[in-house]
Amino acid sequence: MQEGCIFCGIVAGDVPSTTIAESENVVAFRDINPAAPVHVLLIPKAHVVSSAAELRAGHGELLGELFELAASIADAEGLEGTYRVIVNSGSGSGQTVFHLHFHLLGGWGRSGSFPKTLGDETGGVPVN
Ligand code: DGP
User: What is the CATH number of the domain that holds 51?
Assistant: First the structure.
C-alpha cells in the first residue's frame, strides 16, 4: 500500500468503489468517469508499479491473471469478445492515477459505432 494512492485506498476499502470482480492478485471496479458504455478498471491489488513503463518480464504472470479477469468480465458484461484494453503510461499520455491500471472499454454494440481513433475514450489520438 502506498501512502496517498487512491487505488490503494480502494483495495483497502477506505475509498468507496463499485467492485465487480476480483482474482487472487487483481481487482476490477467501474471507472468513476465512464468513457464507454462499459468502462472497468483492472488493477493489481498491490502497488506493484506506478505505471506500465515500469513493467518487466517478471510481471508476466500478474498480467496474464489480469487479462484473464478482463476477459471474464467482458463475458459477464455481454461484450462477446469485443472490447479495448487501454493503458496510459505517464502524465503526457493522460495517466492521472499512478498505480498500474488497465481500462477495459466496450459495449458500443455491433453497430460500428465504436470510436475509430485509438484513445477517443480518454483523449483522442488518431490511429492513422
Ligand atoms: P488514467 O487517466 O489512465 O490514469 O485513469 C484513471 C482513471 O481512474 C480515470 O478514468 C478516472 C478513474 N478514477 C479516478 N479516481 C477514481 C476513484 O476514486 N474511483 C473510481 N472508481 N475511479 C477513479
Answer: 3.30.428.10
